[in-house]
Amino acid sequence: MAFNNDKAIYLQIADRLSDEILAGVYKAFDRIPSVREYAATLGVNANTAVKAYDQLAQEGIIFNKRGLGYFVAEDAQRHIKQTRRQTFLKTVLPEFARQMKLLDISWEELKEAVASVQ
User: Quick check: 42 pLDDT over 80?
Assistant: First the structure.
């Protein structure tokens, strides 16, 4: 995984695991890879992966069954979507709209561009 400097690595790992949950790689109550397995897969220190798992557990996205590992929470997808939607609407969209206005991008151009991505 290529990491960027804009965000702490453990948060990028938490985002990646959240993306995998949204994509259905891991469904509700599925066991996810152990901290060590996931750290090895991503080529990071296990302590960094622990921080990511702790973050997701605090958010209620995953939970730990002692001695068995981490599992996806029942409403993890809903929670991730809700949180990300709020972030998008409050942070990303205002800047996106500002850039559209500065660059004279019409809503029609935007719709065409979005349609070509799908």
Answer: yes
Query: What's the number of CA atoms in the CB half-sphere (13 Å) around residue 89?
Result: 6
- Positive/negative CA dihedral, 113, 92, 10, 32: negative
Tokens standing for 14?
């938490």
Mean pLDDT of 80-93: 96
Helix (H) or strand (E) holding 28, with range, is: none
Domain membership flag for residue 33: yes
Q: Does residue 50 share a domain with residue 108?
A: no
pLDDT at site 2: 81
User: Which phi and psi angles does 2 have, rounded to 5°?
Assistant: -90, 125
The total number of residues shown for the chain amounts to: 118
Specify whether the CB–CB gap between 71 and 63 falls below 8 A: yes
Residue 55: predicted pLDDT: 97
pTM: 0.83
Same domain, 27 and 44: yes
